[in-house]
Design a protein that fits this description.
Elements lengths: L24 H12 L13 H24 L6 H14 L3 E2 L12 E4 L2 E3 L14 E10 L2 E10 L5 H20 L6 H14 L3 E2 L5 E3 L6 E5 L16 E4 L2 E3 L5 E3 L7 E3 L5 E3 L2 E5 L4 E5 L1
Antiparallel strand pairs: 1-4, 2-4, 3-12, 4-5, 6-10, 7-8, 9-14, 10-13, 11-12, 14-15
Helix pairs in contact: 2-3, 4-5
Length: 292
Amino acid sequence: MADKKIGRNDPCWCGSGKKYKQCHEITDKKIFRYALEGHTVPSRNLIKTPEQIAKIKESAKINVACLDAIAEAIHEGMSTAEINDIVNDVTYSMGGIPAPLNYEGFPYSVCTSVNDQVCHGFPSKDVILKSGDIINVDCSTILDGYFSDSSRMFCIGDVDPAVQKLVDVTKECVELGLKATKPWSFLGDMAEPVHKHAEENGYSVVREIGGHGVGCEFHEEPWVSYLTNAGEDMLLVPGMMFTIEPMVNMGSNAIYTDPENDWEVYTADGLPSAQWELQVLVTEEGTEVISW
């Protein structure tokens, strides 16, 4: 559905209290020009207002606190169920709600994906972290109806140098994607350096699962691929918010989902996978990392 037309002297749709001509009129005209050129452009509901951004940042404080607490506590011999407990303790004590809990039937408060698990790993008292393991902890928070989402990798004990390199290169991919994210560029401009860096190091990027818009809902448009090229995909406009979270596999990009729980995703070849996730806001000047 097309965005509703607003008079130049009407209040701006973003809720700033300013007249439209003093606020988003120029931005909307610029977006319209890109649309006429055939580009995919965001609708207004994907452009966060200053009030929404402020509330999402409050949610992100909890999300970051959870991951900081995990970083301090994680150790060899710890169960992944203990990580779930930490997320619950921190989140609820700060007034938030774990976003994954009961989301489309997901039964836990956090995703803990170990070694060849690509994503959506179930915390369990039976999964004990051992030296050499790598684990992605993916944390998402709701506060007053606003969402934050980020993940970090943790290396346990003595990790094989080849596996450590996978973790490090994946983080570099995210950093390159962040550097390339700019207003009035495209999602493909972010994605191209991500997959090129992974492939130059002999790795592959998962195709079926990507990033997403986030903030007012857990998963919003756009769906974010890390395999498109510069100039492709949706136009990036100040106020847009999404995740940069490539899943990088040491071997093939082929994956499968556990048929018993229909959640946990693994590499098809059994080789390790790594992922880091940032929640990013596109600004007038560049980007701001909201959750990390």
